[in-house]
Amino acid sequence: MTGPRQPQWFHFGPWVFSVDAAETLIATTPRSPQHLDVTAWATAYGLTQLDDPNPRVVSLIGPTSNALNRAYAMTTDLTKPVIVGQVSVNGHPAAPLLIDGTHRRYRAWREHVPRLPAYLLTTEETRQIQDNVLLGPGRTLTTPPSS
Known about the structure:
Elements: E1 9-12, E2 15-18, H1 19-28, E3 34-37, H2 38-44, H3 70-73, E4 82-87, E5 95-100, H4 102-110, E6 115-120, H5 123-128, E7 130-132
Parallel strand pairs: 4-6
Antiparallel strand pairs: 1-2, 2-7, 3-6, 4-5
């Protein structure tokens, strides 16, 4: 018997993103999935180096070799779209950031699947699901505290 499902969070630097809130947002504002290039994203996140016994590079944004559950990854549903947010820092143009789907992307890369379906969030939608670990829920580096 299992208990209630634990909330899902994606951690990136000082931020956390609620996967549950992203899924709710997508359900309430439906959109068509886009196509994510598996090899390009797997390379960017360092997934192509995870199984190398003599790694020559270190990924700055992907999981470490001992942080990815490979057995679980190989059971994931590749038809479920991954979630990509858009992050803008200090007025710089938004950059894509995978919020949910690292295990699916690893499996797709290992199985030579060229593309995965992906839901894309806008910058504003990404801000709605983002919290700042250092500042607390609902706060960002540019959001003043409420009184």
